[in-house]
Design brief:
alpha/beta; 5 strands; single chain; five-stranded mixed sheet
Length: about 140
């Protein structure tokens, strides 16, 4: 399914065009080790520009509007965080609220790949087998 991006400022968040879902129901968690490009990926998607310099980010949220091919609008709360296995309470909360997960790792950093695998195993353990799996390499 392909999605078209809609600029947040051109849409009214509480518009009657939202036929289903809310920002809370459509929570996308972008998660991975620090310094692998989570912020850059999200900002490139939302704003259309790529950030080349690293600015440490603990956690940020962006509400973004998408329009599906069937002309329905959905609010998606994109939450990106660099929580790790070192902060179990914060990690557990993040995994429990997520409806979808995008695990990010650095192609130039083997350790980040191993950390992403640990995060994925943790997500499967915490959320059970009821997770739909979609794999993509960007």
């Amino acid at each position: 399914m392909r999605f078209r991006r809609q600029r947040q400022d051109s849409m009214v968040r509480n518009s009657s065009t939202f036929l289903k879902g809310s920002a809370e129901e459509n929570q996308l968690v972008v998660i991975g080790p620090s310094e692998v490009g989570k912020t850059a990926l999200v900002r490139q998607y939302i704003e259309g520009n790529f950030i080349e310099t690293h600015h440490p980010t603990t956690e940020e949220n962006h509400i973004h509007i998408i329009k599906t091919p069937d002309e329905k609008f959905h609010a998606v709360n994109i939450k990106y965080t660099s929580v790790s296995m070192n902060y179990p309470a914060m990690l557990e909360h993040t995994v429990r609220i997520g409806r979808g997960f995008l695990l990010v790792f650095g192609l130039n950093n083997a350790q980040s790949f191993h950390e992403a695998i640990q995060l994925w195993e943790y997500i499967k353990t915490l959320r059970g087998k009821k997770i739909n799996i979609f794999q993509a390499f960007i």
